[in-house]
Design brief:
By secondary structure, the protein is mainly alpha-helical. The chain is built from 19 helices and eleven strands. Bound molecules: glutamic acid.
Length: about 500
């Protein structure tokens, strides 16, 4: 049987790292087994829907190169792929459960249910509409059909079979057993006629012939309900895999938008309102994919820098971790750097032109700047920052760095270099080795020489390779920067 997996987001806001990882694992599994990756939009809860989130989800997947084989935009033989367009299907399937007595109508008003909740609160219990108390409520099990004629509001509830333990199997966590009283007689069809998540989700997984359900751990408590639904229809279940939580950097609690804001890192793939995404922060799609895939899985070898082809090759679903994965932005940045280093400068320019708009005014210069900076750039945004050092004289000299220089020695170094270049005692390409030879004779350390020249060229003690800068800016600009620093020191 060919593998069919689905990513089934609800359009209730932007995708975050967790959702992205779910999408990615599904996609990888489909690719690995030459199967089908389906996008299904679970939009039955219209109250929770957030405008533009469906488009956001699609844009985010497409930025990462995760292309669904079937879905609301690509179509496919099992559509529609938006749940709000499948209501007739759910209605028919709900009717089947009523007929087989696996579900029942319930007529309880919101205030009846609130009363029951309040009563239980007094005794310290949590309310569950279940096999233990369903006969105390207003439903088709307790009321005769004449009496319910006038009641308009009704829902359909799943009847959890009594006296029978429920066993569910998760490929990552093994077998989980729960007793029937622990599970609620969940609403399947709401008073407005729309299905709930549980119902639509199971019906669609069955009808869309899903073989593996891969989703976040937060859905694990729903699994017994889903299992009972499968049993009620006599269907086999797909295989289930519930992915571990993604924890914040401290490893305490689930990663939240607030954690990202507090510590200054993105948690969405693309910009969402005021929050910059990984894209705008300067991540390559391949850098982010590489990082995200390692949140909950690792290859058997120690190899960490992986492109999607290698990931698909190495991925083994039975190696998905059970424990929570700690989010580590620095590691993400480090991996991104490795992916930037691997790319040809021309490719970087062609694929991400927005990051190189201001670094130079023609393509040739841009490419040579990219090549010079590439080794050090961890984020695409670094190119603009670093290129500024090539294309502009320092606007100021960093105070802390200045205090590390010996003024008198620095002036000697600068003057010797300036004059030697100026009267052609040595050529631009050789200045470094010439200066090192001279320093040895005159008693200047390599560090003293290079730090002084670095200050003159970029205004601080950090920055790109000095020889690269000097050959990029040329002799005249080099002399000018030396001169300015001499003037400043004097
Ligand atoms: N619509 C659910 C979500 O938003 C899908 C959960 C599942 O994959 O079953 O995550």
């Amino acid at each position: 049987m060919s593998v069919r997996v689905r990513f089934a987001p609800s359009p209730t806001g932007p995708l975050h790292i967790g959702g992205l990882r779910t999408a990615l694992y599904n996609y990888i599994l489909a690719k690995k087994h030459k199967g089908t990756f389906i996008l299904r939009i679970e939009d039955t809860d219209k109250k929770r829907e957030v405008e533009k989130s469906e488009k956001y989800i699609l844009d985010a997947l497409s930025w990462l190169g995760i292309k669904p084989n079937e879905g609301p935009f690509s179509g496919g033989p099992y559509g529609p792929y938006r749940q709000s367009e499948r209501n007739n299907i759910y209605k028919a399937y709900a009717k089947r459960l009523i007929d087989s007595k696996s579900a029942y109508y319930a007529y309880d008003s919101e205030s009846d249910l609130n009363k029951a909740r309040e009563n239980l609160k007094k005794t310290g219990g949590a309310f569950k509409y279940n096999s233990a108390n369903r006969l105390l409520f207003n439903n088709s099990l307790t009321l005769d059909s004449k009496k319910v004629k006038g009641i308009k509001e009704k829902v359909i509830r799943l009847k959890i079979p009594e006296n029978k333990k429920i066993n569910v199997d998760d490929q990552i966590r093994g077998r989980i057993t729960v007793s029937p009283e622990e599970v609620e007689d969940k609403v399947l069809i709401k008073a407005d006629g729309m299905p709930t998540y549980h119902f639509a989700n199971v019906i669609d997984d069955y009808l869309m012939k899903i073989t593996h359900v891969i989703r976040g751990e937060e859905w694990l408590p729903s699994l017994p309900i889903h299992k009972i639904l499968y049993d009620a229809y006599g269907w086999n279940t797909p295989k289930f895999m519930h992915l571990p939580l993604i924890l914040n950097t401290a490893g305490k609690g689930k990663l939240s938008k607030r954690d990202g804001e507090k510590e200054g890192y993105p948690i969405f793939p693309l910009r969402w309102k005021d929050s910059l995404g990984f894209k705008e922060t300067g991540f390559l799609p391949e850098g982010l994919i590489n990082y995200i895939v390692l949140l909950g899985w690792s290859p058997e070898s120690d190899k960490e820098i992986l492109n999607i082809r290698e990931i698909v090759e190495l991925f083994k679903e039975d190696k998905i971790h059970k424990g929570g994965a700690r989010f580590d932005f620095e590691k993400a940045v480090w991996l991104n750097q490795k992916h930037i280093q691997k790319k040809a400068p021309e490719k970087l320019l062609k694929k991400f032109p927005e990051f190189f708009k201001n670094i130079a005014d023609n393509e040739k210069l841009k490419v040579s700047l990219i090549a010079l900076i590439q080794e050090r750039a961890a984020l695409l945004t670094d190119f603009e920052k670093e290129s500024f050092l090539f294309t502009n004289s320092p606007a100021k000299y960093d105070i802390n760095s200045l205090s590390r220089l010996d003024e008198k020695k620095s002036l000697q170094i600068l003057k010797y270099l300036h004059d030697s270049l100026n009267n052609k005692k040595f050529v631009l390409d050789n200045w470094k080795s010439e200066m090192m030879g001279w320093g040895k004779q005159e008693g200047f350390s390599a560090k003293e020489i290079m730090q002084t020249i670095r200050m003159a060229l970029v205004g601080s003690l950090k920055g790109p390779d000095l020889v690269s800068i000097s050959s990029f800016i040329g002799k005249d600009a080099f002399l000018k920067r030396l001169n300015s620093f001499i003037g400043f020191l004097k």
